[in-house]
Every structure is written in structure tokens, then in C-alpha cells.
Design brief:
With 640 residues, this protein is mainly alpha-helical. 69% of the residues lie in helices and 0% in strands. The protein contains 24 helices and no strands.
């Protein structure tokens, strides 16, 4: 979102703010079951220790988010294998502290890189490092490596089953949810035409369309498409057509559309998950004769979307084509020297390893808590978020230790421990969406309870709690210092270079779209398209990271905001154009003009000077692309 130039609250006040997201009751309860059930099964077979080890696999469920089940199955399955592997690795490396420290850094760096490159939502590296660290803190016995890893694997499989239960009764739930949001946002866009809200609504619309395209793409299984999926695919296609039509024909008008347009689109959104009788269509009146042709076009597309909803599901058929980037393409794009994903992962790994080396060198009690605290603090996406995490973790831990003290005074045993794990995990997941500090109130006693239960009387609670408090303070301090020194300006300083790369890649893609590339050429599978997509993704991530730098350059961030939006929108338009098989070919002269205009913009950006205002040639049938290039050139001319 656009950088707010008004005076922001203090860092401490921001850290203590509680957001208004709804409580995830079902996910929180399922997470508690996933954590506690393996412990209960272990107790049933007479081994609390093995049950607690298996409980580590329950962290798998914390990676469950509302994504398509096809993607969820692969993601959660990969997490299970990852946690199993780090358990084995932690067990065999436990006798060698230096190896443990280095491996902890490597595990953190690899996890951060993979999650960042694939843009996977979730807690990223923290639980991989946590499980590895806890495995090193168990009684040293490399011979049990396979046993411990096997217990974690079985528990992780249980979490996988819990994560996939929803597929049985609502297999297309995530996909229908995102397409519903597309039409709700489209209704808002229709209502904003001719008002000051139009540009903001246009940006939100483009973002949700990109999300829906990605969601449908990852859920698409070529050999097993359902009728409902076909319906959602068509609805999403018509939503894209409506958006492009609005942008091309209604961006610069000062009159609003008839309210019936927004109402009709809203009706489609409300009907996507409903069966049976639907309301009558609203009759649209043509009030502005000058706009009549464009209005009729919008009405025709809305009619097509309505027909998709009204036809019997069995009659909805469509040739579906998605072109997914290969893992190699994605990872190679993220492995660029200017990629903030690569920079963040290397920074994360190095600082984690340093924290671990310090902890083991000074022989702290439960040394792994120092790097764990460091990892938890660094899990903030930006420096500001890192400061928030440190404040929240500090305050939450103090109170959490007190809560743990109350629980442990009752000396819980057996199934009482399992019930406490269930309850504390449930409350933690309930509050993690509200504020990390609130969650720390409960995951701190949860961790102390598990650690005290597995220590077999080696430490008394007072000593244990004091040691944990010291470790958290030291680990948080290392994380804060490391992130501030290494990353305070690493994002904003790279924006001009990456922006110029993005502009050049868009020029290359535009050239292959509108020039003769020979028989059988498919622009959707071209290197130019993949390169443009990678650069756009890296640029957006870089900008979001720069928002959290200290101190932020407010003028520069505000300047780049409109440019980022324009490049993103231009990329979206080029993507949609590439799906069409009958594109017009531009003359060499027009292509040369276009390439020269892009190179002028890219060169001016890298040098930090305003770009020249050049004439953009007509692109037959694609007025919106021409308009967007002109807008982008205009924005780049107002250099701060």
C-alpha cells in the first residue's frame, strides 16, 4: 500500500497494537489437536518422552493456510519431510556444537530462500530451526536418529490428514473464495468509475485478479478437472475482460456508471457458492449516449458471466490452459544478486549461525534458545517488523514465564501435560493473528512445559526460567543488531537498478508479442515473459521491504509507489495480451519507437534523472497498453 506520510505512531505503540482480524477458531483448535494428540498416543503406549518427540511433528499444522488443496497437499507434505530431515540432522550432529551452529544457519537460510522464492505464506524458517534445535537439546544418542525422525514423520502425517479434511466436503473452497472476492472488488470498481476512488479501486482489482490467477493455476490438475473448477475458470476469465474494458474505456471520465452495473456484479459474487433460484437480472438503462458502445460491451460481458452461473454445471466446458513457471525458473530468478529474497536468506543464515556460535561458545544453559530467539526476532519481514518482534517477544516472555511458573507449581504429569499443550497451542494460534506479543504469553509457557517435562529433573524451574529469559534477551539483541547493520538500507538502494531491469524486460516481452517470431511461437512460454514476471515479483518484494527500513525515505517511497503500480499494471496487460493468438504485428518503425522509449526510461531510472517525454506509437487493438506506457513515462519524468 502507499506509504503514509502522516506522522506514524511510535515503534512501541505499533508493536502493542492489536489488529482486527477475526479469530481462526477452527485452525487454532486443529493446531492444538495436532500438537497434543501425538503426546497422548505416546502416553497410551507408556512413553511420554517419545510422545513429546512426536509432538514436534505437530508444528506441521502451523503451515496450513487457506490455499487450494492440490497446493496444500504438496506444501504440507514437503514440510513433513523437512521437519523429519532436520530432526535426523539434529540428532546426529548434537555431539558437535560447531557443526550444530553452522547447520542451524544453513537450515534457516535455505528455508527463508525457498519460502521467499515460492511466495509461500507461513512461519517460514522458524519451526525448521526450532525442531532442529530441540533435537540437538535431547539426550545425545545418534543411534536414535531414525527413531526420532520416524516419530516426527508419523506425527507430521497426522497433521497432513487434519489439513486435508476440508477437501472431503468443500474441495473447491479456496478457489471459489478468491473468485468471489474478484467479483466483490469488481463491483467496487464499477461504483468508483468517475470518482476519486477509481485509481485505488483499480489497484485493488488488479491485485485480487493476480491472486485469483495464481490460485486457480496452482489448483489446476490437468487429468482431473471438476465442473465447478471449469465454472470458476470462466468466471475469472470474464472478470479479467471486464477489468480491461473498464481500464480502456472508463479511466478518464468524470461521470459515474448506472448503479445497476455494480449491483449486477455484486449479485454474481453472492451467487458463486449458492445453488437454486437466483434473483432476476437488473435491467440496465443507457443514460449516456456517448458511452453507449462501451456500456453495451460491459453489459455483454456481465451477461456472459451470468450465463456461466445459470447453466447446469455439467454443460460448463472450456479448454483450460495454465502455464506454470518451472521450479528451476523460479529459483534462478530469486538467485539474482539484486534479489531481496537471496539477500535476506544469506543475512538470516549468517546471523543465526553467529548467534548459535556465541551461545555454544559461552555454554549457556539450553544454548539453542539464543539462536531460536534470534530467528524469531528476524522473522519480521522488515527492520521495523523486526523491532516489533523484539519488543513483543520481550514483554510476552516475561509474562509467559510467570504463567509457566503457575502451571509448573502443580507439577503436571501424564495426560495433564498433553491437555496443557493442547490448550496453550490453541490459545497461541488464536492470538497470533492479533499480536505476536499476545501469542508469546502462551507459547513461552508451552515451550517451558515441554522442556521441563523432557529435562527429567535436571533443572529446577527457577533456574530454567531465568536461563530462558537471559537467552531470549541475548538472542533478540543479536538479531536486532545484525539486521540493522546488514539490512537497514539494502532494499531501497537497489530499487533504481531493479526497476531499470524490469522496464527492459517489459520492452523485450512487448517486442516478441508484436513482432513476427516465426511459426509455432508461443509468447506464454517465452524466456522474455518469465524474465519480466521474475523482475516484477522481485521489484514488488524489494519495495515492500524498503517500506520497513529505518529511517525510511518517504519522498522516494511515495515516488516509486505510483511507478511500481504502473509497471505492475503494464505487466498484467502484457500477460493478458499474450493469451491472444491473433495479435497485430507492428512495423519496424513503431517497434523501434517503443523500444527506444523503454530504454530511455530505464536509462534515466538507473542514472536517477527525469526521463524524456517521447511520443508512444499506436498499438492497434491495445489502447490500454499505450495509455499505460504514457502514464509510466509521465510518472518517471517527475523525479524527486
Amino acid at each position: 500500500m502507499k506509504y503514509n506520510q502522516s506522522k506514524a505512531p511510535s515503534i512501541i505503540r505499533q508493536a502493542l497494537q492489536v489488529n482486527k482480524k477475526p479469530f481462526p477458531w477452527l485452525k487454532a483448535f486443529s493446531a492444538g489437536v495436532a500438537a497434543a494428540l501425538p503426546v497422548m498416543i505416546g502416553l497410551f503406549f507408556g512413553s511420554l518422552q517419545y510422545g513429546l518427540i512426536a509432538g514436534l511433528g505437530g508444528f506441521t499444522f502451523l503451515y496450513v493456510f487457506n490455499i487450494p488443496y492440490a497446493q496444500r497437499a504438496k506444501k504440507i507434505g514437503s514440510v513433513v519431510l523437512g521437519l523429519t530431515f532436520v530432526t535426523y540432522l539434529g540428532t546426529i550432529s548434537a555431539p558437535y556444537p560447531l557443526a550444530v551452529a553452522i547447520l542451524m544457519g544453513i537450515i534457516g537460510a535455505v528455508a527463508i530462500f525457498i519460502f521467499g522464492a515460492l511466495k509461500i505464506a507461513g512461519p517460514s524458517a522458524i519451526f525448521f530451526v526450532l525442531v532442529f534445535a530441540m533435537a540437538t537439546g535431547m539426550p545425545i544418542n545418534p543411534d536414535e536418529a531414525f527413531l526420532r525422525a520416524g516419530l516426527v514423520f508419523l506425527s507430521g502425517c497426522l497433521s497432513w490428514i487434519l489439513a486435508m479434511v476440508g477437501w472431503l466436503y468443500n474441495p473447491n473452497g479456496p478457489e471459489s473464495g478468491v473468485v468471489t472476492r474478484v467479483y466483490l472488488q469488481l463491483a467496487e470498481l464499477m461504483d468508483s468509475i468517475g470518482t476519486k476512488r477509481f485509481n485505488e479501486a483499480k489497484h485493488k482489482m488488479m491485485q485480487v485478479l493476480i491472486e485469483s490467477e495464481e490460485t486457480l493455476s496452482v489448483s489446476y490438475i490437468p487429468w482431473k478437472t471438476t465442473d465447478m473448477f471449469n465454472r470458476l475458470y470462466l468466471l475469472n476469465m470474464f472478470a479479467n475482460e471486464l477489468f480491461i474494458s473498464v481500464v480502456e474505456n472508463f479511466s478518464n471520465i468524470d461521470k459515474t456508471l448506472p448503479k445497476e452495473f455494480g449491483q449486477q456484479v455484486q449479485m454474481i459474487a453472492n451467487s458463486i457458492n449458492k445453488r437454486g433460484k437466483r434473483e432476476k437480472r437488473v435491467i440496465l438503462q443507457q443514460e449516456n449516449m456517448e458511452m453507449e458502445m462501451h456500456v453495451r460491451k460491459l453489459f455483454a460481458i456481465i451477461n456472459n458471466a451470468n450465463e456461466v452461473l445459470e447453466e447446469p454445471i455439467g454443460n460448463v466446458e472450456r479448454s483450460i490452459q495454465f502455464d506454470k513457471a518451472s521450479l528451476k525458473t523460479i529459483f534462478m530468478g530469486a538467485f539474482d544478486k539484486n534479489s531481496i529474497v537471496l539477500i535476506s536468506s544469506v543475512r538470516f543464515g549468517v546471523i543465526t549461525a553467529i548467534a548459535a556460535i556465541i551461545a555454544y561458545q559461552f555454554e549457556f544453559v539450553r544454548s539453542y534458545w539464543v539462536p531460536l530467539s534470534c530467528v524469531a526476532v528476524m522473522s519480521g519481514a522488515t527492520i521495523v517488523a523486526t523491532l516489533h518482534r523484539a519488543i513483543q517477544r520481550f514483554l510476552g516472555t516475561i509474562i509467559g514465564i510467570a504463567i509457566a511458573g503457575i502451571i509448573l507449581t502443580f507439577h503436571p504429569t501424564g495426560f495433564v501435560i498433553a491437555l496443557f499443550i493442547l490448550l496453550l497451542t490453541f490459545i497461541t494460534e488464536l492470538f497470533i493473528v492479533k499480536n505476536y506479543g499476545l501469542a508469546a504469553l502462551f507459547f513461552t509457557p508451552n515451550a517451558l512445559l515441554m522442556a521441563e517435562s523432557t529435562s527429567q529433573g535436571s533443572f529446577n524451574f527457577t533456574y530454567f526460567a531465568q536461563a530462558r529469559f537471559i537467552d531470549i534477551v541475548i538472542g533478540s539483541a543479536i538479531g536486532l543488531v545484525g539486521v540493522y547493520i546488514v539490512g537497514r538500507k539494502s532494499a531501497s538502494s537497489r530499487i533504481p537498478h531493479l526497476l531499470s531491469k524490469t522496464l527492459r524486460s517489459q520492452a523485450q516481452f512487448l517486442m516478441v508479442l508484436f513482432s513476427n517470431q516465426g511459426e509455432g511461437f508461443d509468447a506464454r512460454k517465452s524466456r522474455e515473459r518469465m524474465k519480466m514476471r521474475t523482475n516484477l515479483t522481485n521489484l514488488e518484494t524489494l519495495y515492500n521491504t524498503a517500506l520497513g527500513e529505518i529511517p525510511p525515505n518517504r519522498k522516494a517511497l511515495d515516488y516509486y509507489w505510483s511507478i511500481l503500480f504502473s509497471t505492475r499494471h503494464l505487466g498484467y496487460l502484457l500477460e493478458k495480451c499474450s493469451k491472444e493468438t491473433s495479435r497485430s504485428k507492428l512495423s519496424d518503425e513503431r517497434l523501434a519507437q517503443l523500444l527506444y522509449s523503454f530504454e530511455t526510461m530505464a536509462n534515466a531510472t538507473s542514472r536517477g534523472v527525469p526521463t524524456k517525454q517521447l511520443t508512444i506509437p499506436e498499438i492497434d487493438g491495445y489502447l490500454s497498453i499505450k495509455k499505460e506506457i504514457e502514464f509510466l513515462q509521465k510518472e518517471l519524468a517527475t523525479r524527486v
